[in-house]
From TrEMBL, chains A, B:
Matching PROSITE patterns: PDH_ADH (PS51176)
Example of a GO biological process term: tyrosine biosynthetic process
Assigned EC number: 1.3.1.12
Pathway(s): Amino-acid biosynthesis; L-tyrosine biosynthesis; (4-hydroxyphenyl)pyruvate from prephenate (NAD(+) route): step 1/1
Annotated source species: Phaeovulum vinaykumarii
InterPro entries: 6-PGluconate_DH-like_C_sf, NAD(P)-bd_dom_sf, PDH_C, PDH_N, Preph/Arog_dehydrog, Prephen_DH
Molecular function GO labels: NAD+ binding; prephenate dehydrogenase (NAD+) activity; prephenate dehydrogenase (NADP+) activity
Residue intervals of the Prephenate/arogenate dehydrogenase domain: 10-299
Protein's name in the database: prephenate dehydrogenase
Amino acid sequence: MTGAAAPVYARVALIGLGLIAASMAHAMRDKGLAGSIVGHARSAETRATALEIGVVDAVFDTAAEAVRDADLVVLAVPVGAMGAIAAEIAPHLAPGATLTDVGSVKQAVIEAVAPHVPAHVHFIPGHPLAGTEHSGPRAGFATLFVNRWWLLTPLPEANAQAVARLEDLLRGLGANVDSMEPAHHDLVLAVTSHTPHLIAYTMVGVADHLRRVTESEIVKYSAAGFRDFTRIAASDPTMWRDVFLTNREATLDILGRFTEELFVLQRAIRMGDGQLLHDYFTRTRAIRRGIIEAGQDTAAPDFGRGAAVPPPAEADS
Amino acid sequence: MTGAAAPVYARVALIGLGLIAASMAHAMRDKGLAGSIVGHARSAETRATALEIGVVDAVFDTAAEAVRDADLVVLAVPVGAMGAIAAEIAPHLAPGATLTDVGSVKQAVIEAVAPHVPAHVHFIPGHPLAGTEHSGPRAGFATLFVNRWWLLTPLPEANAQAVARLEDLLRGLGANVDSMEPAHHDLVLAVTSHTPHLIAYTMVGVADHLRRVTESEIVKYSAAGFRDFTRIAASDPTMWRDVFLTNREATLDILGRFTEELFVLQRAIRMGDGQLLHDYFTRTRAIRRGIIEAGQDTAAPDFGRGAAVPPPAEADS
Ligand SMILES: NC(=O)c1ccc[n+]([C@@H]2O[C@H](COP(=O)([O-])OP(=O)(O)OC[C@H]3O[C@@H](n4cnc5c(N)ncnc54)[C@H](OP(=O)(O)O)[C@@H]3O)[C@@H](O)[C@H]2O)c1
Ligand SMILES: NC(=O)c1ccc[n+]([C@@H]2O[C@H](COP(=O)([O-])OP(=O)(O)OC[C@H]3O[C@@H](n4cnc5c(N)ncnc54)[C@H](OP(=O)(O)O)[C@@H]3O)[C@@H](O)[C@H]2O)c1
């Protein structure tokens, strides 16, 4: 324990013990934010690992047992699994408890979970804008959320005190907290994360299918651009399947705009319209500057949150 | 000078004094690979900067003057500018000199440059797979090429001794050298770099045009995926315009495959075909593993070439 704060919750139950849950657990422990931390995951193997590496104080074979007496329950499973778990745990949630989730999509989670939540439980949906392409309990680390956004999408009837208490916890993990409408969240994330991921998956798939270029050439001469795409495209297939299936409308909307725009550039290449290309590429630079100024990234392409790294060897042509 | 090697070339002339030329100059100086280094750039400002920060020993107002008496001439300007420069310098190239370039496209450079090259000069086209999204002489640094590939696409009639000597220099810069056919180079790069860059530019453009999401939201909640794209899309507009205009066929070929593939995934999202998405995302993981095993990247997403960095806070959903 490096912080001296009083615990924000006496007993936290993590349902799902992967990257996000384990990172929360490490940070809560470091900062003394939780009295005790218990959990449940689908497989006995993950439960055993989480216990062994000290992610949780205790594991339970069922989610229903895990949530008993918890004043905070966190759903940290793929988005598509949340509805069934909510139905299972609902009768076992303690009166006054807070139920939150960390799912990457918010409208679908609310639709799937909210109907099961008893009136005496505060359901406050959330989404940390932090992660890696790794998964499982061993992938977790305490600093994952430091200086990253954690978006909450509270329902209109949300209890202000319960929200404030959850925010205390999230700030304790190092996150910056913001609230927005669920539908708006899903659109923003479709632009900043979901569609880029689908595009990266696609580009890596194209490379994979190309017969005239061997896989070893792709791998050997993988330059920035593609190398970044492969990292993105290495993320967990189940998580991302669920993201696209549950944020379908917004993703399809953004994808439609993307192909429209891509066709404009493709035509400019075909027609030799250098002016259009140059103007387009000049405009996109401004957004990058904005992101660096907003502190969401550093000028150095190590994404180095605090890491001192020598000059980059990154982009390439 | 940190190395004690004898200079590989007595006098190197760099035409263009941006990121690539300046990085070569710093590395050649550090390793004692060149007797003297001179240069030319289009603007007086760049010439003055290059001289001031010690990239070159001398600058000349014209490329023709700069190449006089050089035994190595490096064309390090945007691909579209190389033909005119080759025409200008051709009469002034020393007998037995080697002429190389660092352009990101090879067939178009060969078509534009080769016709001007006198019989007594060795033209050996090349392309370092290393760069950043920054440009200009101040962006250069000596370690840019360390452990990166430098592809040569020598013509059938190339002089083996001249090629070997150039390879000595490039290895001296820290690069790994490989040779391939110009057309194959352009296809490989269309997959691993050019098309990914166009896609990144497009995605950033889509975000820029979206009215329902403010630019400040895009910037603030920019998550991995998108953040990586903005970095790629911050690269020099002139350089990239020229890349797409001169590698038109291969880029359009790969773009066609990309949209075809994207439509398959888009349809799967629309139809709710989770199995297809899951299978697709599972396959793309393998390529990533190959790249990490090939040492082109590290498992840590800092792209950390040798940098020790704490666990990543990278991908996101
Ligand atoms: N990774 C990111 O970048 C990121 C970022 C922000 C938000 N998120 C969201 O966070 C959530 C969890 O992601 P993660 O990265 O932590 O995933 P993860 O590392 O793959 O872990 C998922 C956990 O959920 C468990 N699980 C899966 N299906 C289950 C079920 N039906 N019942 C009970 N447990 C089940 C898994 O158990 P087993 O190991 O036993 O299968 C595992 O412990 C997802 O909703 C995701 O959208 C992820
Ligand atoms: N950046 C990368 O990631 C990368 C990687 C591999 C290969 N390359 C290739 O390397 C080459 C140079 O790229 P770079 O990144 O070094 O570019 P850069 O930093 O933008 O520098 C370009 C240099 O070329 C000069 N120049 C432009 N047009 C000229 C002309 N008509 N006559 C004389 N000089 C001219 C510029 O002079 P002013 O400053 O006076 O305009 C500047 O000194 C390009 O062919 C590119 O495709 C780039």
